Automatic annotation (TrEMBL):
It comes from the Bacteria. This is Fibronectin type-III domain-containing protein. One of its GO terms (molecular function) is calcium ion binding. Residues 135-226 form the Fibronectin type-III domain. One of its GO terms (cellular component) is membrane. Gene3D superfamilies: Immunoglobulins, YVTN repeat-like/Quinoprotein amine dehydrogenase.
Amino acid sequence: MRRTLFIAVALTVVSFLLYCSKENLLGNNQPAESKDSVSITTNILFKQGQIQVSPDSVDSIRLTVTYGNVTLTNSFSFSAHHGTVAQIPVDIQFSLKIEGLDNTGTVIYSGTQIFDGFSDDASVTITASQVTSRAPSNLRLTAQTSTIIQVQWNDNSSNELGFIIERSQGNDSNYTVIDTGIPNQKALADDAGLLPATIYYYRVCAFNGAGKSAYLVEQAVQTPLQQRIDSIAPILFVSALPESVSVDSVTVTGKAHDSSGIYSITVNGQTATLSADSSFSAKIRLNLGKDTITVIATDNSSRKNDTTAKLYVIYDPTASDNTPPVVSFVSPINNDTVGSLSLTLTGTVNDLGSGVDSIKCLTGATVSLIGINWSVSVNLLTIGLNKITFMALDKRGNRIYDTLRVFADTTTLDTVKPVISFGGLTAGYMFTSTPAQITVHITENGSGLDTVYINGGVGTVSGSDWTRSVTLTPDSNRILVLAKDKAGNRGMDSVFVILNRTPQFTTLNSNLEAIAYLNQQYRDTVAATDPDGATSLTFTKQAGPSDMTVGITNGIITWTPIVITTIRCTVIVSDKYQESDTITWTINVLDTTPNISPSFIHDSTAMTATATIGSLYRDTVHATDSNNDALTFSLISNIVEMNLTDSIINWTPKIKDTGVKPIFIRVADGRGGYDTLSWGIHVLFNIDTIQLSWAPNRITVNPDSNQLWLSSWAGAAFVGIDLLADSIISVVPCLNYQDGPLGVCYSNYQGPKIYSSLRGNGRDGGSMALIELNTRPFPISKVIVNLNPIGCISHPTNGFIYTTHETAHNITEYSEAQARITRTINVGTETSDIKITKNGNKAYAVAQNVNQLKVISSSTFTISKSITLPAKPQNIFLDNQDLYGYVIYEDSRTITQFSLTSDQIVGQLIQVGNSLGFGTTSSDGEFAYVTDYQGNKIYKINISSKTIDDSLSVGVHPAEILFNNNKLIVVIEGNHQIIITDKF
């Protein structure tokens, strides 16, 4: 296969090629030839519950591909059998969502899968499961008589198994199921035990194998006191006609419904042929030009109510007709089982364009056609599956082929469906936990059971009983059971059960007030929760003083004792199904003693009034009580991170807390007395900014003199900064050198010095600049190291400078004592960054193009180990305890943690930001601080929990960052600044 990848220049494109059909057969069987793109053949497996199905309602397929921030969508007809989504890069993680839509654009199947990326041809399978039906709407109720109510609604779904119609007498809280309906049903005449002059509430929802839809908005209607005449017109549906036809006749079809039955249907005054299910058909003559077709349906009531529908069609002999006829099978239907090899097949064929010319059975049998109805006698060829194909032709030569599939079984034909018994699982049976084990008994005396589905899942058989664990929802649940025997007969039944779990007190008896005082009101509250989310819980007193009251809905307890006693009290909480929980406690009534409220022994001026971001604030409050009551302190202020234990306050402010925070603390004696102390804490956060003339690159600190030195490659200079005064002390130009400084490090071997690599291809591209710090104006000299040095670092004790190189692909050891290069390591690739442990035993260098971290022994100056990394590394940083190191990757949000003891990767820290640059750790190694170069932020990461502890927004393109004396020093490249902040 020919395929070319140009990394970062051009990407090979991945295309999705989907082939699908009504039989659920998908895929491209053509051989793969040489091509420039990668093809992924996607197979769709449609499922309803756990059952594979034929998605007959699917009209179109919608593909949605998502990777990164990119979303691509394409839709195509289901009958087209294929579709394409292009422009997806290879070898990149993406998600593919497949949705099956009906002819109204409603999603009825959906499936999503995530792929790690492909570099070669592939074939995958995605399961698209049925989604719940859309809820019906526009509920309409009409009391036709004192005992009949007409219920009508709009059917908004195309994938329902039926509709659940529920009724409640007198109120809207006692619904029971009165009918489970059928697909496409839009009305019901309810005459099941209705009473005159009574209000009834109704609600309706759709259901299928995926569950129930939401209920439509409930409505109510009152039956009249006396019987009244039916005044409701029939419901009439007429099949759509084409805008124009080229023949002088058309067959009009449709269906009507009325609770009293259909008396007649006329089409342009001609009586239509009416079937038992109120479907009709009539063939009428047309006149040239526009014809009006009037259909009138009349019901069977004494008033003969009628409904009229009008359609329009143009008779034009020259009208184009590209639509083939429609063939349907009436008896037997597709996939039926028959008991004889000799059959008479019946069905219909209709063409609303030029009209039907003929219909043929490709077995050679003669088809009889009368109107739109056809019949043919055939002899099946074999026991088992038989296929009979028909070809229908209209008068414009459009043709269609359709195949009837029947299964012949000439043994004693089993036509009896299995019988389902729920045993003790009666309507309204109450479960107190979920999932619930549902057991049903199936009686099948014919061909034997094939499968039993309980709420869409396959049951487990044990003798004649079938069980399945079903997850229930609070209140009413419909348990739908479908039993299928081996002859294809299906028995279906359902029962409604209730999930009701016991409510529970959330108040502990130890939390209730155990002391009351003579002639003083005792007041407390009990609270409870319901696992099923019920809000209308009822509280009642079971035991206690006769004059004690308990709020029925709020649980508030009140009582005024008049005698000294000890009494035991019990309160019950119950739900609407009378499931209950109890709480019991004891109250001791004491003689009345005047209570004096406690008081703080100091005012707000005694409290610490300032705090610093990232530092612990700690203070103590003190109070006294004249009654020697036990005191409790509580924090009233809404500060989540502040902790008050006994009388001690602990708080570490974050960036968001900058400013003045009002604090309120209450001391209480448990007898209703309390005092409040309030003050304000001014939370400080210092950021000092040092403006430079050029963009800074790298920084280093002289800890002995509190000096910061930085290199500016763009400015061809070194800058010294006094960290105590936050001011520039010197700008040292290096104009005599052809290449600007890049990496920079501090050394105190035989006197303080600064080393900086001179990167480039000029005459100084193989050098380092050396700045002596003992004398001013800080003279510069030059030492030779190697071609194109990038980074440099000084050994903490032995006077060596380690330098990484871009072009030379090596690391050099420069001896300060000997003033020469003493040893060189050939790495074989670019090395962009190097760091040395605190004890100086090991160094770690980034080997970029081979995705490795090189471990270097300081004593032998050799590579002792290569650690393989998941991507191209950029920078590293080590903690101050010689425990862990961290790798930051090029244009990435990822940080890898590795052990400095075992030199093994430990794991990944949390992904943050957009494109990380540099990092450092706090002095105790508890937190990592990393710069987000593109996101213009500094993130503080808790290393042990791998969570973001805080973040700070800064200027454009923050780069290198150092932690020094509880301060953060950050290079802001885009603003040409150095900022110095408090730790946070």
